[in-house]
Design the sequence.
């Protein structure tokens, strides 16, 4: 290699050091950029030229350094772990939030809950039994009875509203899923074009990785990497994104809780309506599990919201049947006196919404059993229902306890899933995140390499100057 070749060797060193400075600067600039993956310059030494002719026996130095590319220091295994954890966290968080809302709506234990109002209701019957010929206890009973029914109705309505809000969120999340899939396909196209042109697509890959995590958080699924740099995103066993093409999903099914029994809410492919997508995680799967209708077999394995609403109906019907069975055995004071009269009436498909109080005054209360004006024996029998096994209080207590246990389990599951997701993200950041201390060391190393290469070039320049301008001038 000629002396002039040494200049090229020094130049490659300058170029490599400058590339290293540029990449380290890019890392530092994006130290706080979400989703950014640290990059590193990949270099290799350039071997010396082949020796031929008279120079065949003399060894030759290498010809400098080659910048082979800019590597993205991501770990596919850790990326997959982040996506898997995001899918489970999304599913668990939706259910945890929903069950916590259901539990909070019960207001139990506390003065504003149905348990407290139910105790007041039965206590009022004791008051009527003690003073059957007085209007005041009867008025208080009727007022508190209507307050109890209002609480039952309010609780059921809150669940219906929660179901409607969750149903609306499924539509929104399905739209978000389609948008993310389209963006991944567009990035696939850009990445493939960039790589085919010999460019670096690391930042585009970072964006695509973030979108893939978003898809996982919404609908679970897996990611497959193709040889051309594109990825496929598979949801429910079918490709949501295949290279540069996408499939569209849609939310289908009833828009009301009552209609969900005949038309369950599900996520399906737009080009194959009626076929539900079997999701393995994600927020959409969590929402769909909440929107399922209650199990008609009484197993309680249906959707949490519909099961809770059904429990309100069961409690309201139990309250009406239990009180009416005893009230009908009594006699109203009249005039005219009557027997077989109900205290509660139930209309419509939902007892929680259609429950009403039949008597409008003291004359309609069957307080006695024919023993005269001061007979309060039947009112006392109704008051004793407060402690009856299988009665309204027991039915409500069972529902409250079951809801509390389910909410506690869902919250614990959500916390574990969140912790797993955070741990996966931490592991990913440890491997692919920017370490400013490390980058500072790299900056100094590349700076010194640049200075050293410049010094080599200066030395060669001075040597050439001696050969060109000073050779043959000895003694002159």
Sequence:
């Amino acid at each position: 290699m000629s002396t002039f070749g040494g200049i090229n060797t020094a130049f490659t060193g300058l170029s490599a050091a400058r590339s290293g400075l540029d990449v380290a600067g890019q890392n530092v600039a994006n130290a706080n950029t979400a989703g950014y993956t640290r990059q590193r310059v990949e270099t290799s030494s350039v071997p010396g030229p082949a020796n031929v002719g008279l120079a065949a026996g003399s060894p030759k130095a290498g010809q400098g350094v080659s910048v082979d590319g800019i590597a993205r220091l991501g770990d596919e295994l850790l990326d997959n772990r982040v996506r898997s954890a995001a899918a489970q966290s999304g599913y668990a968080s939706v259910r945890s939030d929903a069950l916590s809302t259901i539990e909070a709506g019960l207001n139990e234990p506390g003065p504003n809950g149905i348990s407290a109002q139910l105790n007041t209701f039965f206590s009022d019957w004791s008051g009527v039994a003690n003073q059957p010929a007085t209007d005041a206890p009867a008025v208080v009973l009727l007022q508190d009875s209507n307050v109890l029914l209002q609480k039952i109705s309010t609780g059921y309505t809150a669940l219906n509203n929660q179901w409607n809000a969750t149903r609306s969120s499924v539509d929104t999340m399905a739209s978000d899923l389609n948008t993310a899939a389209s963006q991944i396909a567009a990035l696939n196209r850009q990445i493939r074009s960039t790589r085919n042109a010999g460019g670096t697509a690391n930042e585009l890959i970072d964006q695509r990785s973030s979108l893939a995590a978003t898809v996982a958080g919404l609908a679970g699924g897996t990611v497959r990497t193709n040889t051309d740099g594109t990825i496929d995103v598979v949801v429910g066993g079918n490709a949501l994104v295949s290279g540069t093409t996408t499939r569209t999903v849609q939310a289908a099914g009833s828009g009301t809780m009552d209609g969900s029994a005949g038309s369950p809410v599900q996520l399906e492919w737009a080009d194959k309506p009626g076929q539900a997508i079997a999701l393995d995680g994600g927020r959409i799967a969590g929402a769909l599990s909440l929107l399922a209708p209650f199990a008609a077999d009484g197993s309680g394995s249906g959707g949490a919201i519909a099961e809770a609403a059904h429990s309100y109906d069961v409690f309201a019907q139990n309250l009406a049947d239990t009180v009416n069975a005893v009230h009908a055995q009594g006699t109203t004071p009249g005039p005219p006196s009557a027997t077989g009269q109900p205290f509660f009436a139930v209309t419509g498909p939902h007892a929680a919404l259609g429950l009403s109080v039949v008597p409008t005054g003291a004359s309609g209360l069957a307080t006695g059993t024919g023993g005269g004006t001061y007979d309060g024996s039947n009112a006392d029998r109704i008051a004793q229902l407060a402690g009856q096994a299988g009665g309204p209080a027991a039915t409500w207590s069972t529902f409250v306890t079951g809801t509390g246990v389910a909410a506690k389990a869902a919250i614990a599951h959500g916390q574990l899933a969140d912790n797993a997701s955070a741990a996966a993200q931490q592991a990913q950041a440890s491997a692919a995140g920017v370490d400013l201390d490390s980058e500072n060391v790299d900056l100094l190393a590349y700076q010194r390499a640049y200075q050293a290469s410049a010094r080599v070039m200066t030395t060669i320049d001075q040597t050439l100057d001696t050969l060109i301008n000073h050779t043959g001038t000895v003694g002159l």
